[in-house]
Amino acid sequence: MSDWLPGTRDGQITMAETWIAVIPVRGTTWGIPGTELTMLTQLTTEGKTALEKVKNKGTRTSVDVADCNAKMESLKAHLRYIKERWFHRPPLQDADFTALGLPIPDQVKTPVPPPSGFAEADVSYPGVGVLDLHCRPVAGQPPLDRKSDYGYRIYYGIYPPGGATVEQAIGKERLLMKIPVNGEELPHSRWGRRAKERFDFNGLGGMTAYFCIKYENSKGETGHWGPLFSAIIP
Questions:
Q1: Cα–Cα distance between 24 and 144 in angstroms, integer?
Q2: What is the domain count for the chain?
Q3: Roughly how many angstroms between the first and final C-alpha of the chain, as a whole number?
Q4: Which of 150, 167, 199, 206, by CA, is between 20 and 30 Å from 193?
Q5: Is 28 exposed, middle or buried (0-12, 13-18, 19+ CB in 10 A)?
Q6: pTM for this model (two decimals)
Q7: Is 228 found in the same domain as 127?
């Protein structure tokens, strides 16, 4: 599956700025909440500032590089989140995809069938603030490798003791205000083909991470929601 994100960080910033310009015009039709645009704008500004800082080889430090890496990863994750939740056909038309700088989805049918079955995972605790999810093979689905047409879409969210404040809920971590009851309530997602996915929740020790997984193919078609499960972040 080819990635739709630009391969360079400058290209990723440009795409984010394009979305920031387009979403206020068309985002209401697509059902995108204003809080998502606010978050995207903040992450883009932070990523762009950090990126400009590391471009100066004479003054940048290892701290600058680490900060840039973290901020760009946050921006990329949010771009993927918005696309996964709202940029589908329909309601988007060809002109919308073009305006967003995204490839127009292929309308030619492929032999890749829709996924089915329930995806589950076991949890291990390799270190402080870190959780490993060991995704189980999905019954009736092909085994995964790096060229597979299938993968796991892992949805997740973090619940602090007593629930998040409004500020925490709309902040970068988007902490949960209440205990979720299904995968639809989890604000983050990650797609991958690996049987083991590592989540680094540095600074969130003692909070509860909730997960729910869907088996997904390269066309974005998903199987059933797996069971909701949780783990205490060490």
A1: 39
A2: 2
A3: 34
A4: 206
A5: exposed
A6: 0.55
A7: yes
Mean of pLDDT over the chain = 89
Evaluated on CA atoms 43, 44, 47, 52, the torsion sign reads negative
> In one letter, which amino acid is 128?
V
How far is it, in rounded angstroms, from Cα 42 to Cα 139? 42
Verify that 57 and 137 share a domain, yes or no: no
Whether residues 138 and 74 share a domain: the answer is no
Question: In which residue ranges of the chain is pLDDT below 70?
Answer: 1-2, 106-111, 145-147
Q: What is the amino acid identity at position 69?
A: N
- Other beta carbons within 10 angstroms of residue 158's beta carbon come to 21
> What are the pLDDT digits (tens) for 110-152?
567 888 889 999 999 999 999 999 999 888 887 776 667 888 9
DSSP structure class, residue 139: T
What's the domain range around 158?
121-232
Integer angstrom CA distances of residue 41 from 21, 132, 204: 10, 31, 24
Q: CA-CA distance, 4 to 12, in Å (whole number)?
A: 10
Q: Which two tokens stand for residue 56?
A: 């100066």
Residue 146 has what pLDDT? Answer: 61
